Amino acid sequence: MPILEAKTIIAMRVVWESLENEEDKRTMEVSGNQKVKAARPQVFNALLDPETLKNSVPGCDGAEFVDFPTGRQLKLTVSPNFPGFKGPYNVFLQTGAINPPAHLVLIAEPTSSLGSIKATCSIDLADSPEGTDITYNAQAEIDGKIALTPDFIIHKAVKAALEQFFKNFEKQVSTAKV
Fold first, then answer.
1. What's the confidence (pLDDT) of residue 1?
2. What residues contact 113, with CB distance under 8 A and at least 6 apart?
3. How far apart are CA 133 and CA 135, in angstroms?
4. CA-to-CA distance for 43 and 60, rounded, in angstroms?
């Protein structure tokens, strides 16, 4: 039995070392639809409102605009509820293409000792009888140790965060005064 245990330990060590030596990169896509019970202009403006985002993004402790030479960005201070990724982290959101109140592109490139993420999210808004239909499509390039997190864990965490975000966002936007 001790020989088997030693072989198992050696095999685990070889796998771990090979993971450490891999190019720690991966890409990820997330897309979906959501209905929000509010008018399209109200939903569009809320997607860029610091207070609404602070109260909608899971684990967000603060949100404020910051001016940079390259333009104004929205700084979110986030402490994710994800094992091994204690925060807080500063995430800067900048806008790409904007066509109010129908289309918006958000870009984020957070970096930490665990790696970096370069994410772009395209958001389309359409009127519906219930309010506004949101369609989003996000692509992310993930580098570093965070890229080694198994897919099933990342996808579960992203799904849970999106569900919580839209639940919070719906509450914020539907109760906001126009």
1. 45
2. none
3. 7
4. 19
Task: Answer for the pair 99, 116: CB distance below 8 angstroms, yes or no.
Answer: no
| Number of H-type helices and E-type strands within the chain | 4, 8
Domain boundaries, the chain: 23-175
In the numeric block, which tokens belong to residue 58? 């899971």
Query: How are beta strands 131-143 and 115-128 bridged, if at all?
Result: antiparallel
Half-sphere exposure of 16 (CA within 13 A, CB side): 6
* pLDDT, position 18: 47
Strand segments (E) across the chain: 25-36, 60-68, 71-78, 89-99, 103-108, 111-112, 115-128, 131-143
Instruction: Return the CATH fold of 23-175.
Output: Alpha-D-Glucose-1,6-Bisphosphate; Chain A, domain 4 (3.30.530)
**Apex CA 106: angle with CA 53 and CA 122, to 5°?**
115
Using alpha carbons, select from 135, 66, 144 the residue that is nearest to residue 104.
135
Q: Please tell me the predicted confidence (pLDDT) of residue 12.
A: 55
